Amino acid sequence: MTKSKIALVTGGGRGLGKDMALSIAKKGLDVVLTYNSNRNAADEVAKEIQALGQKATTMQLNVADVRSFDGFIAGLQKSLQSEFNAEKIDFLINNGGFGLHSPSFAETTEEQFDELLNVHFKGVFFFTQKVLPILNYDGGIVNISTGLTRVTFAGRGAYASMKSAVETFTKYLAKELGGRNIRANIVAPGAIATDFGGGNTRDNPQVQAYLKSITAIPRIGQADDIGGIIAFLCTDDAKWITGQRIEASGGMSL
What we know:
The protein has 254 residues and is an alpha/beta fold. 42% of the residues lie in helices and 17% in strands. The chain has one domain (6-248): 3-Layer(aba) Sandwich (Rossmann fold), CATH 3.40.50. The radius of gyration is 17 Å and the shape is globular.
């Protein structure tokens, strides 16, 4: 019997991360999902994955705390051995994060900037570095960006700048890791109806009406519009795709 491949999804307990984890499991992969503070939500997702016939476990991770990464990797290795009978993972999905914006660039504080930097770029950069020794040949990395690196909305400049850095970083990963047949790609969601950024897209009718008016497919994006793309990139169907940015926004601002 062929052993299932394993994907690690950061921030896999809620929102987009939850749908990513479930969609990956539906492709026949086992899943390690991390949470920052809401363990109960993550455990529920793990139970749903197990009900699909795949293995799953949850681990606490603060992606802003680079100093904690060595301890996390040590715990992950123990969990892989005890729960998955494995030494390494096959896919890393850098999804964990938060939305934060100020009214304008001029009002963005240094504290806000540093929070975004630590989670969305510094954390992604160094967490990927720490995971690399336990990432299998023929594996893959998917980094989550945003449609805001292509289109602009006031107050999102700091957040989008960090994601732009991650997009550039991903191309370098694709180049440097290609010799190990490790693929690295970006998925850039548009506006999605989750609790991200305070749930404005999900809950505000005026925001929804505006977004529909500038989107080729005139509806609001849902979490399951994104998870399937991530899952696809974790299969052999995507074995020749690397260094790419895939935007899933319904055709916003074309």
